[in-house]
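Quick check before the chapter quiz. The format below is the same one you will see on the exam, so make sure you can read both the input and the output lines.
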Amino acid sequence: MQRILVIGCPGGGKSTLARALGAKLALPVTHLDSIWWQPGWVEMGAEKFRPLVEAVAAKDRWVIDGNYSNTFDIRMPRADTIVWVDQPRLTCLWRVFARAVTQLGRVREDAAPGCPERLDPEFFRYVWSFRREHEAKIEAALAEHGAPARVFRLRSDSEVAEFMLAI
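Here is the expected output.
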């Protein structure tokens, strides 16, 4: 495992898993949220974002955390391992809400500078509808761009823990 892509619903544990994989395998970790978001929660825009993602994905060794399905075509073909963290909706929603409340006003280490944690109803709706809106897109992207990577779909904290023990 030298190039690992971690995808899935916010609140599922992607960033935590990415950091753990990076530490265990001595791989650099890139959180795409920290690139996409500019101070004040301003979006970078695809025309500037894609070349930055291409530069990260072109490296020999990495863990990349984040969905950004408009860059699956860049990242998936380069990945040797794709980990889809597919936790239950209520788990993700609870974690996102708890994170927002406990970290309110602070910038997380996997977030962009100048983007403090906030209570964002629109983001909660995104999490609630993530599977309905994105599962088919992820499956299609894996079918189109995912080979020959090994794909792991982890549906619970215990599966994530087993995965970490197995590597």
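If your answer matched, good. The CA atoms of residues 36 and 44 lie 5 Å apart.
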